[in-house]
Write a structure and sequence with these properties.
It is built from 5 helices and 4 strands, in the order E-H-E-H-E-H-H-E-H. The protein is an alpha/beta fold.
Length: 108
């Protein structure tokens, strides 16, 4: 079982949808957080340390974590999904995009 962390800006739509849809799939444990101060759950160094693989929705999310947690993020596997902030929570198109993008990267 791997620990997967999904990151977006506010942890309200994209990363929260990923957590909801993918948690428990193939035994993986999934959490989500956001990079902005007003995020529902703001990413911490603890989140980064917990994760085996980190998925960011956009490159700016990785840059923000590199600026704030340079040591914690430097040795982590981080994958950018390139999913723009144009989907609401549990949007069917977003779910399909997440499943298609993530399945190739999910560790066994």
């Amino acid at each position: 079982m791997s620990k997967l962390l999904f990151i977006c800006s506010r942890n309200k739509w994209r990363s929260l949808t990923a957590e909801t849809v993918l948690n428990g799939v193939d035994g993986h444990e999934v959490r989500s957080a956001g990079t902005e101060p007003q995020a529902r759950v703001r990413v911490t160094e603890g989140h980064i340390g917990w994760a085996d693989v980190i998925f960011v929705m956009e490159k700016k999310h990785l840059r923000r974590m590199q600026e704030k947690f340079p040591h914690a993020i430097s040795e982590k596997r981080v994958i950018c999904l390139h999913i723009p902030d144009e989907y609401e929570y549990m949007n069917a198109d977003l779910i399909q995009l997440l499943q298609a993008a993530v399945l190739d990267y999910m560790p066994d």
